[in-house]
Design goal:
By secondary structure, the chain is mainly α. The chain contains seven helices and two strands. It has helices at residues 3-9, 15-21, 23-47, 55-78, 87-115, 125-156, 171-176; strands spanning 82-83, 159-160. The longest helix has 32 residues, at 125-156. It starts with a helix and ends with a helix. Residues 27-157 form the GtrA/DPMS transmembrane domain. Belongs to the GtrA family. Keywords: Membrane, Transmembrane, Transmembrane helix. It is found in: Membrane.
């Protein structure tokens, strides 16, 4: 039994049924949280050091590294019961859709930085960092998350495998798993 299945087995009804129906989304969100930490750690390390004056470049580098981690985690865990494509085709689609997601995620940062001009010296460093966090990590990541989840299920991992355990499992079946 996976960690997520164990947690879901302990959720009281009727919330358990909802969690079972959306276990793929829950796993996708956990992968997203993990890659969020990777992305933000790299972004702020670069932005506060060697790429101080180039926040977009820092975000792109951080996003690309996070996408590589995302592919591995999503392929092996979130969407492990899906397929329908040759591995090379699947990977190419994943990275293409993720590249679109990276662009989507830095559009709010671009607007914040260059349309609203929330950059030092026009604003304080604290204001700039708060604006960067909200625009890149809250707005940008939410937009890209919705786009990527929908796209991955529709295009990258379109078919559920026949051997998938049904989401109609009873409490006893979950406890035995």
């Amino acid at each position: 039994m996976s960690f997520v299945d164990g947690v879901i087995a302990r959720i009281p009804q009727p919330f358990r049924d909802i969690a079972l129906r959306h276990s793929e989304l829950i796993k996708f969100a956990i992968v997203g949280g993990t890659t969020f930490l990777i992305d933000s750690g790299i972004f702020y390390t670069l932005k506060l050091s060697i790429l101080e004056s180039k926040p977009i470049t820092a975000k792109i580098i951080a996003g690309v590294i996070a996408v590589i981690a995302s592919y591995i985690l999503n392929r092996e865990w979130s969407f492990k019961n899906r397929g329908g494509r040759e591995p090379a085709h699947e990977a190419a689609l994943f990275f293409f859709i993720s590249a679109i997601g990276v662009v989507i995620s830095f559009i709010p940062l671009y607007i914040s930085s260059y349309v609203f001009n929330l950059r030092v010296p026009e604003v304080s460093l604290t204001t700039e960092n708060i604006a960067d966090f909200i625009s890149a990590y809250i707005i940008g990541n939410l937009l890209q998350m919705v786009f990527r989840f929908w796209s991955f299920r529709k295009f990258v991992f379109p078919e559920e495998n026949a051997e998938i355990v049904s989401d109609d499992r009873t409490e006893e079946e979950l406890d035995q798993a």
